[in-house]
Model the fold of this input.
Amino acid sequence: METIFKPNLPTQPRLTNEGTHITELIKYFLNPVPDPMIYVEILDGLIKNYGVSVIIDNSQSCFSKISLNHSFETIRILLSSLSAIDHPCFDLIVTSEKNPIVLCSEKTTMEALSEKSNIWPSLFSLLFNKGKSDLASAIKAVYNINKSRKIDRTNYLFVLTDGLYSKSERQRILENVNLCSIKNILVFGIGLGIYPNGIECLFPNIIYSQDPEKLINGISKCFNDSAKGNQKFLGYGFDIPKIDFTQINNFKNNPIFKDLKEELENIKISFEGFPFTKVEKSKEELGDNNINDDGMYERNLLKGQKILFSLLYTEGDYITVERIYKGKEGEECIQSSIDYYGITIDVARTYQETIDKLTHDINGKCEYYSC
Done:
């Protein structure tokens, strides 16, 4: 952290060639010398003068079961590292559905992040009560806090999030990030969870580490003398994972579990998976269709049922919304394969949209039978 937060505020005077030091000026008149040092500037006695703000995105996606461990470890590493240096001005903010929750503002890190600080129980109680998250409002709060400060400082903002927001929300976030940049607040997006690809289009500087222990190393790279402009350190140890569709395609005709695939193909189609309905037909009507139960191929058998497809990633050549409803020439699509049964399809593109659709109450029940 010392390479990131170097002493930046001089507090002691030093004689230079600029400015006037009255004592030295009198000495010069009493005993004139060439190139006199009769000037003084405050250049020595450097101390740290930083304003550090941290925002934690308390969204469902950041603290889901599969992201929980990574998110908590990333938060722990960042806050414990900040506590090792006594910063004079520290803010900690947690997002909520409407107004952000400011756990502390303009406290020293030694006070705010000490082991006995009352921030810890408040912080973890908030993170264990996840709900909707308004990240844009939290960033705007940091802007307002910095705007009201009476002492000029070098200000940094660390936003811990996965960046998985809708297009309209991303626009709001970007507007407030730009406000902070205009205010000379250096903004960093730090990835939470297993797939925080949303941070790449939201923040001027981004760091993501699959191993949270390497997080500080990633941040320090942004402060190298060679680092200029916007920085995106996603190299060794910092890569956001990408889906390898080529590998998936290679397994299409030669599956890894080939024996299991053949076994599943040989299982007779049964009606046992649909106990809520029963269609009476004679064996003569059914014929020899490898069916050992009645009604499996009844048209509109599942009419009224809905399936929700949750596309929580950037669309590519292989998986798009369009291919759900329209296959390539000569190929079936998902919609055409289930039309016979009367099933309809709905699509969600973000975590929040998925959660809203799944929790939408229809007579006390979820309207989707599969997601």
